[in-house]
Amino acid sequence: MNPALFLGVIALIIGGSLRYWINRRKFYRRSPMGVEGFSSYEKAVVITFFERVIKWISFIIIVFGLFMLWSYSNHTKNKNLIIQKEIKK
């Protein structure tokens, strides 16, 4: 298996899992009225900052994964074009 394909799929799985984990935590922290409940102001600030940073990291990982899949796709297309040109000669 090509390393670009492997890294792309793994990056998408990791990035998607991180986003799912953060969104799930936010969902279960909400009350029936839709308000997030924290035991203190400090916890609210630290947790929301941590979640925001993790969401940005997961976004970067997902973009990296998409770039790797795009790179793999271009590599295989170019390889097929070269093979077709050699066959025509």
UniProtKB/TrEMBL annotation:
Superkingdom of source: Bacteria
Keywords: Membrane, Transmembrane, Transmembrane helix
Name used for this protein in its record: Molybdenum ABC transporter permease
Taxonomic lineage from the root: Bacteria, Pseudomonadati, Bacteroidota, Flavobacteriia, Flavobacteriales
Transmembrane region(s): 6-22, 53-72
Organism name: Flavobacterium faecale
